[in-house]
Amino acid sequence: MTGNDRQTDRRLEKTILELLERRGPTATICPSDAARAVYTGDDDGWRALMEPARRAARRLVTAGEVEITQGGRPIAPDKARGPIRIRRRLH
Fold first, then answer.
1. In contact, 60 and 16? CB cutoff 8 Å
2. 53-70 pLDDT tens trace
3. Strand order through the sheet with 66-70
């Protein structure tokens, strides 16, 4: 992993938390929301950030910051297949 990759990872994590902070306590975001916010171009290059955004969400789950959901229910990151949503961890 390059220093640039680590910087992008940190930006994705920060962006996920910032996007959730701007929404209601139970609101969710899609990893694409973070990918689009971090990507600086005006084309669809944000798509290359989708898997890094999903990885960032998994790291935030491990840190206890967020939950990954499918069908409105929390799911273990290693069990998630297909589209996911991210929300603040409900206590």
1. yes
2. 999 999 999 999 999 999
3. 28-29, 85-88, 66-70, 73-74
